[in-house]
Write a structure and sequence with these properties.
The chain has 114 residues and is mainly beta. The protein contains 1 helix and 10 strands. The chain has a 6-stranded mixed beta sheet with strand order 2-10-9-4-5-6, with no helix packed on it. A 4-stranded antiparallel beta sheet has the order 1-3-8-7. A hairpin with a 6-residue loop joins strand 4 and strand 5. It is globular and about 40 Å long. The N and C termini lie far apart (40 Å).
Amino acid sequence: QVQLEESGGGLVQAGGSLRLSCVASEIIYRIHAMGWYRQALGKQRELVATVAKGGNTIYPDSVKGRFTISRDNAKNTVSLQMNSLRPEDTAVYYCNAVPPTNSWGQGTQVTVSS
C-alpha cells in the first residue's frame, strides 16, 4: 500500500525558511525518484524538486538556489529545505514519486506573508 505523509508547513514571513518532511512507504521509495510538488489555489499542481535514487537533484528556475531536496534512504524520508521564501511560494506541498503515483497524501500548507 502506498502511503505518503507530509509535515512541516506553516506561516512564515517573506524571506523566511521552512523545512518540510515526508515519510513514504517503502514500496515507492525504493523504486522511484522522489519529488516535492505544490498546488496553489486555483492553479495546477507543479513539481518543484526532484531527487533521484542516487541523490542527483533537479529544480525548476522558480525555486533553484532557494530550495534544497534531500532523501534519507535509511528512513524512507524526503525533505525540502525552503529558504528565501516568497509570497508566490504559498501553496499546499505534497511529496510523491517522480513521475507521481495515483496516491497522494494530505499535503502540508505553506503560507508566506508579504
